[in-house]
Design goal:
This protein is of the alpha/beta class and 506 residues long. The chain has two domains: 150 residues, DNAb Helicase, Chain A (Orthogonal Bundle); 301 residues, 3-Layer(aba) Sandwich (Rossmann fold). 44% of the residues lie in helices and 10% in strands. The chain is elongated. The N and C termini lie far apart (76 Å). The N terminus and C terminus are likely disordered.
């Protein structure tokens, strides 16, 4: 009763039990630092170079007042064009952008310049402004999630994913997804410069696969791109994943692997076999020589230093993968995500058919690549249509199993094809195909469709570069192995003996 009397006495109305959440949350003034925002803007118009100190911290959305957002956007545009930044130029830019009145007019712009004597404290002021922005973003994300959580029809797992996505973007200072194109042009120039430098040094823009011929054609695995590596059973999809993971980790890139088919123990066994050059079959069945034990010990010491993180939870859905990948990104700074394999993932939506579910998964993987700004590589099965065709049985995009959405969502699609698997030991020119694998680049968003040749080393479960000497016999010339570029490639793991059928592990 006393509480009710107090509400009436002070002219407040006590919210009803079922009142909207806004009455509880938005009853307080949101975190803000308007005076410091004014000081920052005044300092930027006083010292043009001051923007370099805060540009990586502040975005227009970080300012509480809309007028300040317009002014900061105008200053940033002038800076990007290498134009002078002062009261007059800022005012003219606001007029040109049509935001002059919304920014407070000429009087307010002039008033801002009187707020500070110098730009000496702009970094500190900017940090406070940004902290207030982060606090507002957290309130916004959490309030929206709380409101939706009260709805009976809300999918709580999708809501959890949305909440985590919002909080992660807030953590990275990217709560606003909209950017003016002028703010992006600098990044375009930087990327073009990096690509040009990469071409001079070998053409690798992204993370290399370790297959030189493939990397030369694709430029490596690029940030925010989804790559699908597909093939029929027995083509070596898991071996390709093993190859990519090893080469990327050896190059110092932290790797996150979601292994839905193999346990983390099995996957690590393959890594040990690849690095130690001990037949993988021996790690399961025994017969390891004393010299091989020493090689394994040396390999394990090296492997233990590699930044590889494995999750072997079976039948995970896209929401769970996204949640775990975000944590890896925050905790370990992962640079690439590998998934083995797509069809073993479950869907958060159980109502649709399998084709719809796979479509949801492929879209989710593409979104994950963009959100974390890392390459995502997923293995995929091909349909049985490959086996029913005559001829070479090279796979095509139409062979992607269960969904055409995979082809649509993927930036790159690679097919693995081993002629030897179909007892095709020579090509039409009589060239020897034993032990060779063709990596078909059927879709390449950044280049042309092409193919690359590699050696499939089954006993060590990896793909390797081709060396001409591996195919030559001192007394008998023999056929030259085919390569797409007509040149011998260096093998990063050294020479490899021919593989007998009984040596093929797993």
């Amino acid at each position: 009763m006393e509480a009710q009397a107090t509400y009436k006495k002070n002219g407040y109305k006590k919210p009803e039990p079922d009142a909207g959440l806004e009455q509880y949350v938005f009853g307080k003034i949101q975190p803000q630092a308007v005076e410091l925002e004014q000081a920052v803007l005044g300092a930027l118009m006083m010292d043009r170079d001051a923007l370099m100190l805060v540009a990586d911290v502040l975005t227009p959305a970080a300012f509480y007042l809309e007028s300040h957002q317009h002014i900061y956007r105008a200053i940033s545009s002038l800076f990007a064009e290498s134009s002078p930044v002062d009261i007059l130029t800022t005012t003219e830019r606001l007029k040109r952008d049509g935001t002059f009145d919304a920014a407070g007019g000429a009087y307010y712009v002039v008033e801002l310049s009187h707020r500070v004597a110098s730009a000496a404290n702009i970094e500190y002021h900017s940090r406070v402004v940004f902290e207030k922005f982060v606090a507002r973003s957290i309130i916004e994300v959490c309030t929206r999630s709380i409101r939706e959580a009260y709805e009976e029809t809300t999918d709580v797992f999708k809501l959890l994913d949305t909440l985590e996505t919002g909080l992660m973007k807030t953590r990275e200072g990217q709560a606003s997804g909209s950017r003016k194109i002028s703010e992006i042009t600098t990044e375009v120039l930087k990327q073009a410069e990096a690509a040009d430098n990469a071409k001079v040094s070998g053409g690798i823009v992204g993370i290399p696969s370790g297959i030189t011929e493939l990397d030369r054609e694709t430029g490596g695995f690029r940030d925010s791109n989804l790559t699908i590596i597909a093939g029929r059973p027995g083509m070596g999809k898991s071996a390709m994943l093993n190859t990519i993971a090893l080469n990327a980790a050896l190059a110092g890139h932290p790797i996150g692997i979601f292994s839905l088919e193999m346990s983390s123990l099995e996957l690590t066994q393959r890594v040990v076999s690849s690095v130690s050059r001990v037949n993988g079959r021996k790690l399961n069945s025994g017969g390891i020589l004393d010299s091989e034990w020493q090689k394994m010990q040396t390999a394990i010491e090296k492997i233990e230093t590699l930044p590889i993180y494995i999750d072997d939870t079976p039948a995970v859905n896209i929401l769970q993968i996204r949640a775990k990948a975000r944590r890896w990104k925050i905790m370990h700074g992962i640079k690439i995500i590998l998934i083995d394999y797509l069809q073993l993932m479950s869907s958060a939506d159980k109502s649709g058919n399998r084709e719809q579910q796979v479509s949801e998964i492929s879209r989710g993987l593409k979104s994950l690549a963009k959100e974390l700004n890392v390459p995502v590589i997923a293995l995929s099965q091909l349909s049985r249509a490959v086996e029913t065709r005559g001829g070479s049985k090279r796979p095509m995009l139409s062979d992607l199993r269960e969904s055409g959405a995979i082809e649509q969502d993927a930036d790159n699609v690679l097919f693995l094809y081993r002629p030897e698997y179909y007892d095709i030991l020579e090509d039409e020119n009589g060239q020897n195909l034993a032990g060779l694998a063709e990596i078909i680049v059927a879709k390449n968003r950044h280049g042309r469709q092409c193919h690359a040749m590699a050696r499939y080393t089954a006993e060590y479960t990896l793909f390797e570069n081709i060396e001409v000497k591996d195919f030559e016999t001192p007394n008998t010339p023999g056929p030259t192995p085919p390569t797409s570029g007509g040149m011998a490639l260096n093998n990063p793991f050294g020479g490899v003996p021919r593989i007998a059928e009984e040596d093929i592990p797993f």
